[in-house]
Write a structure and sequence with these properties.
single chain, alpha+beta, 23 strands, 15% helix, hydrolase activity, acting on carbon-nitrogen (but not peptide) bonds, in linear amides
Length: 452
């Protein structure tokens, strides 16, 4: 018998706000956020999602929406979804939840997305000290391909995936998160020297009622006030999975998620048409609304069987990800390396973050020789199917990181040649990405070697 049509368990109406949906969305992790639906082990079901900003970023000719976005309200997630076995018995703490991605894509009629750089004073990004201005590029989809009027001469197939998929934490795990992240926020500038080099954005995003949406829980009730003061932000990935941004989690992938509460209560969102390794501009994928068609399986007792705690409690585990068989095929790549020496020439000891920053800056500066602005290339490396690697982490004192760019995504040959960079209309690129001015006064880094 032919397989059944997937059951739609979380529908989305793009004309409505996230909190107005038939099954209200949420943007925090907490064990007491109630599930909005239930699925059975082996059932084929469909989940729809808004883009991670809930429709705040528009397909228009301005980046002012990026400059003024309220980041306290993101990400908007569909769920939580309660999972039970074929006998109706819920997933239990200590189980593994296997989530298989059978199909996915943009929501019909909404086949576009965006990549953005947040303002230095409002979120920033990996290279926020070099690129302080809010900027964005719009992308349009032609089947599996994406192109942008703001980055001409580039076209590539998307490896579509959810940026966020995770289970609800237990109260014990939530308390662990909040305690360690509060310590980073309070003491990080004193103890973490890397912050001086990366000109870090907020060191952590602690629980806050501002911008909080808790699904079915009614706002301005005592229950809402309590949970809003405890619930974890969705910004980083953690033990429950969450915002892992693994670009290869596409069709055929499986995610093995630890279960911390009855029913698992998993949620998903932050759909990406395409993303480069690292999602470096922070809003760095091609962000879009979308859908997932999924199956779940419960492995009883799977956490103890398959996951090794790396910390003081059995809760200090991480998910396992199985990559599917579908991905773009590229045979030629241009690879840029970076070492753990920062832009001021200071040596850092085996620091992969500094090395990856150097590799990315090297790639951006190189590609800008072919008629592109550096903002265009920063956004492109955030969202195209480039490959990031930690190539060396043992050879003191330099960590070595690389970023590999498929040359086929460009309509011109970008390799070095004996007759230097070519000239002509194929190199002169217009228009640039959409930009706002930077009006703040936080530190900005300049490339001293190119200043005259």
């Amino acid at each position: 018998m032919a397989p059944s049509t997937p059951r739609l368990v979380v529908p989305i109406d793009l004309k409505k706000k996230p909190w107005e949906q038939e099954r209200p969305l949420h943007n925090r992790w907490h064990p007491d956020i109630p599930p909005v639906c239930e699925v059975r082990d082996g059932e084929f079901f469909r989940v729809e999602m808004v883009d991670w900003t809930g429709g705040s970023i528009k397909d228009d000719g301005s980046a002012i929406d990026v400059k003024g976005i309220d980041l306290s309200a993101v990400h908007y997630l569909s769920g939580p979804i309660r999972v039970v076995d074929k006998d109706g018995i819920a997933a239990k703490p200590g189980d593994l939840l296997v989530v298989e991605i059978c199909n996915l894509g943009p929501l019909p009629g909404d086949e576009w997305g965006f990549t953005a750089i947040f303002d230095r004073e409002n979120g920033g990004g990996f290279l926020t000290d070099h690129f302080p201005c809010a900027s964005k590029a719009i992308w349009y989809f032609e089947g599996i391909y994406a192109y942008s009027p703001h980055i001409p001469g580039v076209r590539f197939p998307g490896l579509t995936h959810p940026g966020i998929i995770g289970t609800a934490p237990s109260m014990e795990l939530l308390n662990i998160w909040n305690e360690r992240e509060r310590d980073v926020e309070e003491n990080g500038l004193k103890s973490l020297k890397l912050c001086e080099v990366l000109h870090s954005r907020p060191l952590a995003n602690l629980p806050s009622p501002k911008g909080c949406h808790l699904g079915k829980i009614q706002k301005d009730t005592p229950e809402w006030e309590r949970i809003a003061g405890e619930a974890a932000r969705t910004i980083p990935g953690r033990e429950n999975g969450g915002n892992c941004d693994i670009k290869n989690l596409s069709r055929g992938s499986k995610i093995y998620l630890p279960v911390f509460v009855d029913g698992a209560n998993f949620s998903t969102g932050d759909m990406h048409f395409s993303q480069g390794d690292g999602e470096i501009s922070f809003c760095g994928a091609i962000e879009m609304s979308g859908f997932l068609e999924l199956k779940c399986e419960i492995i009883r007792g799977g956490m103890k069987e398959y996951l090794t705690p790396m910390g003081p409690t059995p809760l200090h585990v991480n998910p396992i990800f199985e990559i599917g068989p579908v991905e773009p095929r590229f045979s030629e790549w241009l690879v840029f390396e970076g070492i753990s020496v920062d832009e001021g020439g200071r040596q850092h000891f085996l620091d992969a973050s500094v090395a990856y920053k150097r590799a990315t800056l090297n790639a951006i500066d190189y590609l800008s020789k072919f008629g592109y602005s550096k903002e265009q290339m920063y956004l492109l490396l955030s969202c195209c199917p480039c490959e990031g690697r930690i190539s060396g982490i043992v050879d003191s004192p330099n960590a070595m990181a690389t970023i590999a760019i498929p040359t086929a995504i460009f309509d011109q040959d970008i390799r070095p040649k004996t007759d230097k960079v070519p000239l002509g209309p194929r190199v002169i690129r217009t228009p640039d990405v959409l930009k706002c001015t930077y009006d703040g006064n936080l530190p900005i880094t300049k490339n001293l070697a190119t200043m005259t």
